[in-house]
Design brief:
Helix content: 40-55%
Strand content: 5-15%
Number of helices: 5
Order of helices and strands: HEHEHHH
Radius of gyration: 17 Å
Number of strands: 2
Oligomer: single chain
Shape: elongated
Structural class: alpha+beta
Largest sheet: 2 strands, parallel
Length: 101
C-alpha cells in the first residue's frame, strides 16, 4: 500500500475500464482514502460519469460515494467531450488508406 500512498503524485488512468472485484474495489478506496488523509495529489482519468461509479466499486454505492467525496473535496474536474485520441487517429488512418486507394 505504501507504494501507492508515498509518491507526491499518483496517476490512476482509466478507472472503470475494467470491472473490479470486491477486494480490488476496497483496495482502490483505501488508496484514495489514505491519499486524501495525507494530502497526496491524485490525477485520475475515467470515462465513467460520477453517477456510474457504483459500478466501478463493484456495485457498492456507499463506497463509491465515499471515494468520490474524498476525490472531489479539493478537486479540479476537467470534463473532456468528443472522440478519443485513438479514435481520431484511426479515422485519419482509414481516410488516408481510402484516399491511397
Amino acid at each position: 500500500m505504501r507504494n501507492f500512498t508515498r509518491p507526491k503524485l499518483l496517476i490512476i488512468d482509466e478507472v472503470g475500464y475494467l470491472a473490479l472485484d470486491q477486494t480490488q474495489a476496497s483496495l482502490l478506496f483505501q488508496v484514495i482514502s489514505q491519499r486524501y488523509d495525507t494530502g497526496g495529489a491524485v490525477v485520475l482519468t475515467s470515462n465513467k460519469a460520477f453517477a456510474d461509479w457504483a459500478h466501478v466499486f463493484n456495485g457498492d454505492a456507499v463506497m463509491a460515494s465515499a471515494a468520490l467525496d474524498r476525490l472531489l473535496h479539493k478537486a479540479t474536474v476537467l470534463s473532456i467531450r468528443g472522440d478519443s485520441y485513438r479514435l481520431r487517429e484511426r479515422r485519419k488512418a482509414r481516410a488516408a488508406e481510402e484516399a491511397a486507394g
